[in-house]
Amino acid sequence: MEACCSLVSHSLPCVSPRPCDLRRLGRGEFNLSRRPRKLSGSLRDSSTFPRMALRSNVSEDTDDMFDDLIKKYGKVVFKRKDQKSPGEEANDDAESLSFAVAVAKVANEVKAADIRVLFVKPLVYWTRFFIIATAFSRPQIDAIGSKIRDLAEKQYGKVASGDTKPNSWTLLDFGDVVVHIFLPEQRDFYNLEEFYGNATSIDLPFENQPPFRS
């Protein structure tokens, strides 16, 4: 993610720190603090935010140099240069939702069971929606994946990255939508619904249909 440094009343030289905490403020904004030995508790506590590492463009950054920057400027905000307006984000969300529901319908037509569409955008930074479905054999996983790829490419111009061969957990990554197709045992084991328990579940017209079992 390309980022630029932005301060309320100062312009900070773009000196990338050593491994740091990025605190999510809003979409595309992060509060930055290194994980040194001597930071205050407010900067040190990042239990509710994802930890990431920035790759430095500077060959050597010393602890003292970064400490001086923290003392001088305080909180630093990193903003995405390509940050979209709320209206643009809403339009993108709606397009992704339409695609996700279409994919879920295709999975249902190939007799996938217990299909869930989760809005995970508030929880992760790399996608908007998860689709989780159960299949009962590798050939069925292959059939579901093939139908989804055909729909995505022909009607939406999307090509998935990820698994090309059916596995017990097969993943198709379309960028804004990520599809997870599991065999029953693996779905129970990884339990993504519980792991992303705060995600919003999208209502689907076929959710209450009894699961197909071979």
From TrEMBL:
It comes from the Eukaryota. This is Protein Iojap, chloroplastic. The keyword Lipid biosynthesis does not apply. Belongs to the Iojap/RsfS family. GO terms for molecular function: ribosomal large subunit binding. It comes from Actinidia chinensis var. chinensis (Chinese soft-hair kiwi). Its main location: plastid. The keyword Cytoplasm does not apply. GO terms for cellular component: chloroplast. SUPFAM superfamilies: Nucleotidyltransferase. Interacts with chloroplast ribosomal protein uL14c (rpl14). Keywords: Chloroplast, Plastid, Transit peptide. It is found in: Plastid, Chloroplast. HAMAP family: Iojap_RsfS. GO terms for biological process: negative regulation of ribosome biogenesis; negative regulation of translation. InterPro entries: Iojap/RsfS/C7orf30, NT_sf. The lineage of its organism: Eukaryota, Viridiplantae, Streptophyta, Embryophyta, Tracheophyta.
